[in-house]
Amino acid sequence: MDAQSQARESSPPPQPGGAAQSGGPPSSQARPLDIDQLCIDTIRTLSIDAVQKANSGHPGAPMALAPVAYTLWRDVLRYDPDDAHWPNRDRFVLSNGHASMLLYSLLHLAGVKDAKDKRRLAVTLDDIKAFRQVDSKCPGHPEYGITTGVETTTGPLGQGCGNSVGLAMAGKWLAAHFNTPDATLFDYDVYTFCGDGDMMEGVASEAASVAGHLMLGNLCWIYDSNRITIEGHTDLAFSDNVAARFLAYGWNVERVGDANDTGRFAEALKAFKGAEVPTLIIVDSVIGYGAPHKQDTASAHGEALGEEEVRLAKRAYGWPEDAHFLVPDGVPEHFQAGVGARGRALKAEWDILFKTYAEKHPDQAETLERLLKGELPVGWDKDLPSFPADAKGVATRESGAKAINAVARNYPWMVGGAADLSPSTKTNLTFDGAGSFEAEKYGGRNLHFGIREHAMGSICNGLTLSGLRAYGSTFLIFSDYMKPPMRLSALMEIPAIWVFTHDSIGLGEDGPTHQPVEQLLSLRSVPGMITLRPADANEVVEAWRVIGGLRHQPASLVLTRQAVPTLDRAVYAPASGVAKGAYVLADAKPGSTPEVILIGTGSEVSLCVEVFETLKADGVAARVVSMPSWELFEQQDQAYRDSVLPPAVKARVSVEMASAMGWDRYTGADGAVIGMHSFGSSAPIKDLMKKFGFSPDKVLAAARDQIKKHGSKATESAK
Ligand SMILES: Cc1ncc(C[n+]2csc(CCOP(=O)(O)OP(=O)(O)O)c2C)c(N)n1
Ligand SMILES: [Mg+2]
Question: Please, are residues 633 and 581 in contact by the beta-carbon 8 Å criterion?
Fold first, then answer.
């Protein structure tokens, strides 16, 4: 028997709570002996009742974790319920997001105010009664932006753990930049609840490894070790020695043998406070604690207990069996006397500190205020370069390097890095003072994620949620390794930046394992994310102008490994058209309806231009549309879209070295789509272009074929 199960076996059977000891139902008349226990059982019963009413949800973890959550919030967390956005608040992340009712109960009892309307609570009792219903403040899993006090959206297991590493890194970065010898503006801690599922997910392991390496002493994960997941006992699939694993990551590890032992948990929290490395507190708990037939079984995980079992659980707590959503008198008051009194006092001290700070360091204070409000620095785009025409050209990753450096130089809180590929993705910030973010040297702006794409994405979300402007980069093919956090950045409406290079078979000899095909389509399918695949150096600059200005949307920037010509903007339209997603780059007969439209993105735009020149020389009224971003184009009004792609012109060819899927949206069902229909292969680029049909001949033939098919009809109807 391992140490974990020994500890679990030593957990006591459910004992009635303080309310029972008081000899009857809790009420304002009969004050219970143990108000702490009453608070804990209120968290439990609110969670149970909400799940039962919704007939959907996860009661087991809140029932088990209530004592732990209560102790942390009431006695330790530095959090002002009146100002859930206080910059130096401790962060609380519920990585086991299915236990959302735990968080909603805490927010309710702590009296956290709604940030948008301070007259109301972030979570009212009515909100709790509407758990999992349409437009509720209490959705199934915690959602950032929906409920004040939810620091990040969780539910996909492991993400909250990854986010919390970003939050902790941001805390260290902010301290390094803004604290002065006489003003500690930032020293917040980050607490993360996680479960067996989080411990099994790779992203949490990657993130833990980063956190250990960086010695993030402000990070504390609290692991709900109940040895139960959906399929049953963790023995089915999990026999790690978690403590040994985390010790090996360089963490401090604490153990609490019984989740109800709040004294021991408080000691473990003290140990965390004293540690200079991240801390894992392993808490042995009983899922569904108190429900006689369901506790310690998988059926307590993710379904309502059932009316009878709810009654029996309440009986075990000494709770009135027929009361629903009961918050006994004195409970919120007692809870708030802890977290609220402490938080308000600390926040008030901080306000005074900040006022003096702002007098002494007005520029720093202004910078900080902008950062925290998610505003852009003044003049952030003032040094963006422009590139002269160059037929040989330059890879867009190279022009990307110039653009990202030009932006970051004037964007003091832009930070980022790569998953060990910055020499290839060219995302290193090279200007004086940029520096590296390292253990105990936390002010650097170049982050080194190591070969951990998934954690990189999740950490970037944590950094972005903290107000920093974070980017993460790798090869486009490996966007698949970090798709979950990318998706969450879009769901949370936060402006994380994803930079991908080596964007097509154009990367050549590395072959099909490295050549993206379906990835672009996958990025474009994420609601709310802006994907940009610029055609040349000047489009890269304009893409950065778009990306830098985003405040509520993530962006993916897709760049080439290989050189592409820098188009002559005296001949062709200015690259500022990028902001509209698609624009007319070249028109053989401006003002008249084109006979054929060639639509390209990225490196294929110059191929379209080459074919355009051939057609033009033949007297054909061709048009080239550069379309770096589907999403931005879709945002334009119909008149603009029709001016770029006139509906009358049916002769259309799209050219993109990626999955052909979806392009008929712009070519029409009878247009020609030149794209990829298979994986690529390993060969020099010029041979690949021929093999897969991205040659001037092929595009020219398609254009002529389109004109034959539609041309006379299109020109007739347009006349
Ligand atoms: C990435 C991911 N995979 C699968 C799920 C579905 N899921 C939700 S909870 C859960 C089991 C989690 O077990 P544990 O963390 O031990 O939570 P407990 O049952 O103890 O509350 C699973 C598989 C998920 N939410 N996220
Ligand atoms: Mg579990």
Answer: yes
Q: How far is CA 711 from the centre of its chain?
A: 47
Hey, which residues are catalytic here?
A: 453
Return the residue matching tokens 């090279």. 430
Question: Phi and psi dihedrals of 416, rounded to 5?
Answer: 175, -175
Mutating to test ligand 1, I would choose from 157, 161, 454 the residue with most ligand atoms within 8 A of its C-beta, which is: 157
Q: Which residues surround ligand 2, an ion (CB under 5 A)?
A: 195-196, 226, 228
Among 172, 110, 674, smallest CA distance to 415 is for 172
pLDDT at 340: 98
Residue carrying the six token digits 């799940």: 51
Centre of ligand 2 to C-alpha 194, Å, is 9
Report CA dihedral (156, 161, 163, 167) to the nearest 10 degrees: 160
Which of helix, strand or coil describes residue 584? strand
Residues listed for the chain: 719
Question: What gap in Å lies between CA 103 and CA 119, rounded to an integer?
Answer: 20
Which residues partner with 652 through β-bridges?
597
C-alpha closest to that of 104 among 53, 51, 157, 68: 51
Tell me which DSSP letter residue 76 carries. I
Cα 226 to middle of ligand 1, angstroms:
12
pLDDT value of residue 711? 66
Which pair of structure tokens corresponds to residue 326? 């009961």
Candidate from 47, 63, 94, 98 with most ligand 1 atoms within 8 A of CB, to mutate: 98
User: How far apart, in whole angstroms, are the C-alpha atoms of residue 391 and residue 293?
Assistant: 75
CA atoms of 52 and 160, how far apart (whole Å): 26
DSSP 8-state class, residue 500: E
In this structure, which ligand is nearest to the CA of 203?
1
Distance 391 CA to ligand 1 centre (A): 54
CB atoms within 10 A of CB 648: 16
Task: Looking at the CA of residue 287, tell me the nearest atom of ligand 1.
Answer: 20
CA of residue 197 to ligand 1 center, whole Å? 5
pLDDT in tens, 104-134: 999 999 999 999 999 999 999 999 999 999 9
Mean pLDDT of 371-382: 98
Which ligand gives the minimal distance to the CA of 157?
1
Q: Which residues contact 98 (CB under 8 A, 6 or more apart)?
A: 57, 58, 61, 140, 141, 155, 301, 302
Give the number of the atom of ligand 1 that is nearest the alpha carbon of residue 229.
13
> Ligand 1, atom 8: nearest CA belongs to which residue?
98
Q: Which letter does DSSP use for residue 434 in this model?
A: -
Residue 483 identity (one-letter amino acid)? K
- Ligand 1 geometric centre to CA of 229 (Å): 6
Name the residue with the closest Cα to ligand 1, atom 18. 229
How many CB atoms sit inside 10 A of residue 261's CB?
19
- Annotate 266-287 with DSSP letters as a single string: HHHHHHHHH-SS-EEEEEE--T
For ligand 1, which residues put their CB under 6 angstroms from it?
A: 60-61, 96, 98, 155-157, 195-198, 201, 226, 228-230, 287, 301
> Terminal CA-to-CA distance of the chain, rounded, Å?
85
Which residues on adjacent β-strands are paired with residue 702?
A: none
Residue spans of alpha helices (H) in 277-322: 307-317
For ligand 1, atom 19: residue with the closest CA: 229
Type and span of the H or E element at 615 = helix 604-617
Dump strand ranges (E) for 443-521. 446-448, 469-475, 497-501
Query: For 53-82, what is the mean pLDDT?
Result: 98
Name all domains of the chain by residue range, CATH numbers in brackets.
Answer: 3-11+59-346 (3.40.50.970), 390-565 (3.40.50.970), 580-718 (3.40.50.920)
| C-alpha 94 – ligand 2 centre gap (Å) | 14
pLDDT tens digit sequence for 694-717: 999 999 999 999 999 996 544 544
d(CA 32, CA 577): 69
Q: Which of 230, 283, 289 to mutate to test the pocket of ligand 1 (most atoms within 8 A of CB)?
A: 230
